[in-house]
Write the C-alpha cells for this entry.
Amino acid sequence: MSQPRQAAGPEIAETFAQNERDLAEAWLTFSIEKFRANLKKLRIGSTQELYNSLAGELVSAAGGDELRLRLSYAVYGMFVDMGVGRGMGAGVTKAQGEDFARLRNARGQLHRHERKAKRWYSRQMGRETHRLSELVSELWGSVMLASVGSALPAEGVGMEF
C-alpha cells in the first residue's frame, strides 16, 4: 500500500478517495486469499465449489461518497462454519422430545452425520474487519495531516507580547 499522495486544497479529497478505493481493493484481494487458505487448511469441500465461489467487489453508493465492500460465497459455507446442516440444528435438546429421540441417543450423541463447526469464516472475518479499520484510520490520519499542512501559511507566523 502506497502512502497517500500530498496535495493542496480541494485535490486532497480526490486523492483520499482514490487511496481509499486502492486500500479497499487490496484488502478484498488479501482477505479472499486468507479465506481460501482457511478452506484448504481445514479440508473443507471436496468439489471446490465453496473455494471457487468466494468473490469480492467494491460497491460505491451515494455518488461515491460512501464506499462499501461485498464479500460473497456459496450459502452452504455458512452452515459449515456453524457446524449445522442436513436437518440437524445446533440447538436440538431433550426438551424437544420427539426431535431429540429421532436425532440423538440417550447420551445426546447424534445417530448419524456428527457435525462439528469448522470456523473457516467467522474468526478470520473478525480479524480482517479489525485490520481494515486500522488501515482506514491510518489513511484518515494521513489525510488530516495533509489537510492541516496545506492550510498553514507558507511564511512563518510570529507572535509578539
Notes: The helical segments are 11-41, 49-53, 76-82, 98-103, 122-151.
